[in-house]
Amino acid sequence: MRRLLVHPWKLAGLAALAVAAGVLIYQIALFVMVLWYSVMPPRMTTFMAAEQGQLRSANADAELHYQWVPYDRISVNLKRAVIASEDSNFLNHSGVEWDAIRQAWEYNRRQSEKGSARRRGGSTISQQLAKNLFLSESRSYLRKGQELILTYMIETVMSKERILELYLNVAQWGEGVFGAQAAARHYFKVDAAKLSAMQSARLASMLPNPAYYDKNRNSSYLQSRTRTISQRMRQVAIP
């Protein structure tokens, strides 16, 4: 029998086509999940799963602190504080602010060279939500590219109110502490709806490095940042 020979270039083309098809199917699956989260609360995010795995490596019985609360049961103070701290142009942008990313990268590089734990997040709230829901803490161009794709999916499908509602419920606020309700109980023994302006400013100031500030609550930088955010909150509009 004659053996059928396939030219190497054809094999490469078929392989590339298979990879492209796999990537497309993966993106479609992610888009379906974005649609799901536009109406349903997440039971667990990738960040939560990673944190739970890390905690259980030291204590098999470790549990996360997480309780979903709807938008109208989260203090207006916290909504204002988080926008003032993380994304002052939240209501106006379409998901990504390139200048903010560049400025944050330069700031964090300088702080790293000084050996400082201070960090500034250049990502918008929409980007941070995309990362928290679906991605990991790993830093690579591939992960960043996927984050941008997810961000535009989220901005296309969800209202600003829903994006903020999701973010406030899944953001990490300490070791094993996720979401506004768990954070309010963990730090102040109140419900998320009862957070004062100063308490909200303090929680917002912790977001760039929550695990560190959970253990270093009397940091002078944290206190200074809290005062700055509390002053900015007055000019912030919320969805």
From TrEMBL:
Annotated catalysed reactions: [GlcNAc-(1->4)-Mur2Ac(oyl-L-Ala-gamma-D-Glu-L-Lys-D-Ala-D-Ala)](n)-di-trans,octa-cis-undecaprenyl diphosphate + beta-D-GlcNAc-(1->4)-Mur2Ac(oyl-L-Ala-gamma-D-Glu-L-Lys-D-Ala-D-Ala)-di-trans,octa-cis-undecaprenyl diphosphate = [GlcNAc-(1->4)-Mur2Ac(oyl-L-Ala-gamma-D-Glu-L-Lys-D-Ala-D-Ala)](n+1)-di-trans,octa-cis-undecaprenyl diphosphate + di-trans,octa-cis-undecaprenyl diphosphate + H(+)
Enzyme nomenclature, EC number: 2.4.99.28
Associated pathway: Cell wall biogenesis; peptidoglycan biosynthesis
Domain of life: Bacteria
Signal peptide annotation: none
Subcellular location, record wording: Cell inner membrane
Gene3D superfamilies noted in UniProt: Biosynthetic peptidoglycan transglycosylase-like
Transmembrane segments: 12-37
Membrane topology designation: Single-pass membrane protein
Matches recorded under Pfam families: Transgly
UniProt similarity note: Belongs to the glycosyltransferase 51 family.
Record-given protein name: Biosynthetic peptidoglycan transglycosylase
High-level lineage: Bacteria, Pseudomonadati, Pseudomonadota, Betaproteobacteria, Burkholderiales
Gene: mtgA
